[in-house]
Amino acid sequence: MEYIRDAKEFAKAARMMDSPAVIIQNAFKAAEFALKAFANKLNRRIDSHSDAKHIAYSLSDEIGKAFTELLDLYGGSYRREDGDRANRAVKLMERIIDEVESRLTE
């Protein structure tokens, strides 16, 4: 469960940062590591953002859409298109991590 531990560390960092770009990037990495934990449970690997997106959709359409939106926010963070997007990124991250954790305990 190292991936979940890493996800929680990135999530913690996302909540503690002041820079919107860094918040978004940490939120994305937290969600991606959580998805890696779920992929591991399915005996699958995540080697790309596309792989992570497929795993997110395998959880549910809602989680897939949340991850897709978070991926878009992540891409925008490099263009410094932040503003309120950081708050949205944290909410999406929390939703994805919560869903993965509930599925890992099934």
Broad shape: globular
Strand fraction equals: under 5%
Order of helices and strands: HHHHH
How far from one another are the termini?
14 Å
Unreliable runs? none
Q: Percentage of helical residues?
A: over 70%
Q: Enumerate how many helices there are, as a single number.
A: 5
Number of strands: 0
Which features characterize this protein?
106 residues, 5 helices, mainly alpha, single chain
Task: Tell me what the structure shows.
With 106 residues, this protein is mainly α. It is built from five helices and no strands. The protein is globular. The mean pLDDT is 92.
Structure in a nutshell:
The protein is mainly α. The protein is 80% helix and 0% strand.
Helices and strands, with pairings:
Layout: H1 2-16, H2 20-41, H3 49-59, H4 61-77, H5 85-104
